[in-house]
């Protein structure tokens, strides 16, 4: 179960930060993308219609 204080929308912001450059891509851990929980994050990404969300899936 994910952290209750985590905002599911943070997933896309973290992905944007991760993709800024090669350094940030390797320094930002992919586990941070699922702070709200894996299942909740997957459902969120399926629900939003966004090119970045499609890349995150």
What key phrases describe this protein's structure?
57 residues, mainly alpha, 4 helices
Short overview:
Helices cover about 55% and strands about 0% of the residues.
Number of strands: 0
Uncertain segments of ≥5 residues (pLDDT<50)?
A: none
Q: Please, what is the average pLDDT?
A: 83
C-alpha termini separation: 19 Å
Estimated helix fraction:
40-55%
Approximate shape: globular
Largest sheet: none
Tell me the structural class: mainly alpha
C-alpha-based Rg, rounded: 11 Å
The fraction of residues assigned to DSSP E strands is under 5%
**Run of helices and strands:** HHHH
Number of helices in the DSSP assignment: 4
Describe this structure in words.
With 57 residues, the chain is mainly α. 54% of the residues lie in helices and 0% in strands. The protein has helices at residues 10-18, 22-27, 38-47, 51-56. The chain is globular. It starts with 9 loop residues before the first helix and ends with a helix.
């Amino acid at each position: 179960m994910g952290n209750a204080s985590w905002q599911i929308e943070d997933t896309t912001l973290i992905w944007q930060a991760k993709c800024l450059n090669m350094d940030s891509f390797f320094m930002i851990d992919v586990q941070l993308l699922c702070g709200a929980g894996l299942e909740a994050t997957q459902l969120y990404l399926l629900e939003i219609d966004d090119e970045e969300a499609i890349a995150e899936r």
